[in-house]
Amino acid sequence: MDHRPSPTPGPQPAPPPAPAPDRAQENARSQGAARVALVLALSALGLWILHAFLPALVWAVILAIALGPLYRRAERRWPLGQHNILLPLFATLLIALVFLAPLAVLGVQAAREAHDVLDFVRSAERTGIPVPDFLQHLPFGAAQATRWWSDTLSHPDVGSEILHRLDNASVIGFSRNLGREVVRRSVLFGFTLVALFFLFRDGRAVAAQVLTACNRLFGPRGERVARQMVASVHGTVDGLVLVGLGEGVLLGIVYVLAGVPHPVLLGALTAVAAMIPFGAPLVFGLAAALLLANGAVAPAIAVVAAGLVVTFVADHFVRPALIGGTTRLPFLWVLLGILGGVETFGLLGLFLGPAVMAALVLLWRDFTDGPEQRPVA
Fold it and tell me: If DSSP codes are grouped into helix, strand and coil, which group holds residue 216?
């Protein structure tokens, strides 16, 4: 037997030293900064890629928020399963019809008016522009105004001068720009409808994700700001769109009773213009001018008076109650948000401006009044 002693084990290698706490915190901070930089870079790249279609996406979000209650009511009325396609498709097509039908009517009416304008220019080329009847009924200066019109505009050279000023190059350039703009806006409208379909179909999941992201990024106040902005969109739709449509209907009836030419077209223009504060007076002022051109002084005064009464009640009582009552936003900030939004973003600013103002006012109230939670309308 081998009685030799067993070899003693040699020294074992020491385990690697644990990283110092400061080094670990430094690594965590550097990784966090790298993640933030990556998120910002990817977000900027995504916005740059989608910048041409951002208006379509924003319009889809606004329409989905504004029509969300009606769509949810339709879902409760016709539950067609979790993966529903028919109801979002039907709602999207219905909205497209709501927008396209008035545009088609306005296009046909504009084509007729263009034919009438061409006939007027041809008649002016042959005989000049006749003296309108309202000049002879002016309370002051009727004879002088009639004499000036007869000496200046009531001869055939006026029509020829007008036609000479409309050179072919300018007309062709205008037609090309108009056609390019029509194609561009048609494409954006199509993308808006596609995005709206997916928002209708997956709206609940998207809303839950947005609220979760706001809560994780900014805490409970972020979720409250998001809900406040949604409420402001609802209030703006009620206060601008619905009130504007009501003004258009009421003043359209006034146009019919007063004998204004093309009352339906002017009523539709009044409804669109009334969505912008102080926009309706431009249209009913045009209607009154058309009546004056036909010598109807009393109906023109009635149209102006009715327009002032309707717009005063809508702008000072109905609209502030709808928008300010929903968003708890003073009407001054509503007005500034609408006008500033239109100046900055165009028609989208009608809805983005009040939403941003509502969020800012909510943050200001939280900062000045304390952190207590306030219910959002």
Answer: helix
Give residue 315's domain range.
220-377
Please report whether residue 7 resides in a domain: no
C-beta separation of 292 from 304 below 8 A: no
CA distance 276 to 18: 67
Structure tokens at 96: 């497209």
Query: Does residue 75 belong to any structural domain of this protein?
Result: yes
Exposure string for 273-309, b = 16+ CB within 10 A, e = fewer: bbbbbebbbebbebbbebbbeeebbebbebbbebbee
Give which of 349, 64, 102, 65 is closest to 194, Cα–Cα. Answer: 64
Nearest to 316 by CA among 287, 277, 284, 286: 277
Task: Kindly state whether residues 67 and 160 are assigned to the same domain.
Answer: yes
- CA-to-CA distance for 77 and 137, rounded, in angstroms? 61
Q: How many residues does the chain have?
A: 377
Are 263 and 252 in contact by the 8 Å Cβ rule? The answer is: yes
Give helix 280-293 / helix 243-258 axis angle, nearest 10°. 10
Assess whether 227 and 374 both reside in one domain.
yes
Q: Are 314 and 247 in contact (CB under 8 A)?
A: yes
Q: Do 91 and 156 lie in a common domain?
A: yes
Is pTM beyond 0.70 here? no
Closest CA to 235 of 62, 10, 9: 62
Residue percentage of the chain with pLDDT more than 70: 73
C-alpha to C-alpha distance for 169 and 294, rounded to whole angstroms: 35
| Structural contact between residues 193 and 96, judged by C-beta atoms closer than 8 angstroms | yes
The dihedral sign for the CA sequence 206, 59, 276, 314: negative
pLDDT tens digits for range 96-117: 998 888 777 777 766 676 666 6
**Residues 244 and 331 occupy one common structural domain:** yes
Nearest to 124 by CA among 164, 165, 153: 153
Provide the sign of the torsion angle of the four alpha carbons 120, 123, 129, 130, taken in this order.
negative
- For residue 263, what are its two tokens? 């009352």
